[in-house]
Design a protein that fits this description.
CATH superfamily of the largest domain: Ribonuclease H-like superfamily/Ribonuclease H
Largest sheet: 6 strands, mixed
Shape: globular
Bound molecules: zinc ion
CATH architecture of the largest domain: 2-Layer Sandwich
CATH class of the largest domain: Alpha Beta
Number of helices: 11
Helix content: 25-40%
Number of strands: 12
């Protein structure tokens, strides 16, 4: 991301779904997008355009009760005024411009957009690597709350004293609200990009290494099994993300919670103790990839983790390295 032609594309989707998980599985498209709304902002975050389209459903021809209650759209309206998804998305991407930075409230929309595009055999938004985007819900929390909480859009609008002059849960109005919130985030925080992992890194060259203000993040390539992942040198490496040296492990990898995540601590002579946290995630096609974060900690926290490792059960049948 970066460059001069940056457009922030704040978008929001509304979708419909099948009656049952079984129906969703049969169709191969659990959530069918029925509306796209978006606001385009320039590099100074001034609004330069709006986009709104209804989509004529091709998969589900009955409104799910949740959808109808939530988004106030009727099937009649969609069938009458909607256009076909591939046409709408082609137009949308064209409208986004050359170097779009997608921004959404939360983490779901970009994944659903890509799933729907895949369903229609459209060209993917990204090849072999996760798509960077700005999660405005996360940025809002970093800017105005504790950085960890995830609030609803309605809450955020109210908290910021933004006039709720449009209905919620329609794509364009939610995009407008999200854009107004984005405008209030300090530019410094915009470096906290997120990655949509609908497409995971296909090989080592596409792995993600990124350093933020207070931590670093690594997203590994995809492995067939968890064991293969846990045996990978790069995944299990403990480097200092400031000087890039492999540094001595002070607390070996362990899991305090049966593999929900793994922890380790290493010590850099120049920069101090680094805590590593490794989570294993599943890909959509049954593979595995790792998300590893590294963060500097003080000596007291290091001692806590050392104790935690001693009291954590050792994984059976695995040699700790
Ligand atoms: Zn260092």
């Amino acid at each position: 991301m970066g460059g001069t032609a940056v457009n922030y594309i704040v978008f929001d989707l509304e979708w419909n779904q099948g009656e049952s998980p079984k129906e969703q599985e049969l169709t191969g498209l659990p959530f069918e997008i029925v509306e796209i709304g978006a606001v385009r902002l320039d590099v100074e975050r001034r609004v330069t355009g709006q986009f709104t389209r209804l989509i004529r459903p091709q998969v589900y021809h009955k409104m799910h009760r949740y959808t109808e209650e939530l988004i106030h759209l009727s099937m009649e309206e969609l069938e009458r005024d909607g256009e076909l998804f591939p046409d709408v998305v082609t137009e949308f991407l064209d409208w986004c411009g050359e170097d779009p930075v997608f921004c959404t409230w939360g983490t779901l929309d970009l994944t659903e957009l890509q799933r729907n595009m895949e369903y229609y055999g459209m060209e993917p938004l990204t090849e072999g690597r996760p798509l960077p985007f700005l999660d405005v819900q996360k940025l809002f929390s970093l800017a105005f709350e504790d950085g960890k909480s995830r609030r609803s859009l309605t809450h955020a609008i109210e908290q910021q004293g933004i006039e709720a002059d449009q209905p919620f849960h329609r794509a364009l109005s939610d995009a407008v609200y999200t854009a107004r919130l984005l405008q209030r985030i300090s530019p410094r925080l915009l470096r906290n990009i997120s990655f949509d992992a609908h497409v995971t890194p296909q090989d080592a060259a596409h792995e993600v290494h990124i350093v933020f203000d207070t931590y670093a993040k690594f997203i590994s390539r995809t492995f067939e099994t968890r064991d293969e992942l846990l045996g990978d040198q790069e995944v299990m490496s403990t480097k200092c993300y400031l000087c890039h040296h492999n540094i001595r492990r002070k607390v070996k990898w362990f899991t305090p919670n049966n593999g929900r995540y793994y922890l380790a601590v290493a010590n850099c002579d120049r920069h101090g103790f680094v805590k590593y946290k490794l989570r294993i995630r599943s890909t959509e096609d049954g593979g595995f990839y790792a998300v590893k974060t590294a963060k500097f900690i003080d000596e007291a926290f290091y001692e806590d983790l050392r104790r935690l490792r001693r009291t954590s059960p050792r994984p059976r049948g695995r040699k700790n390295s």
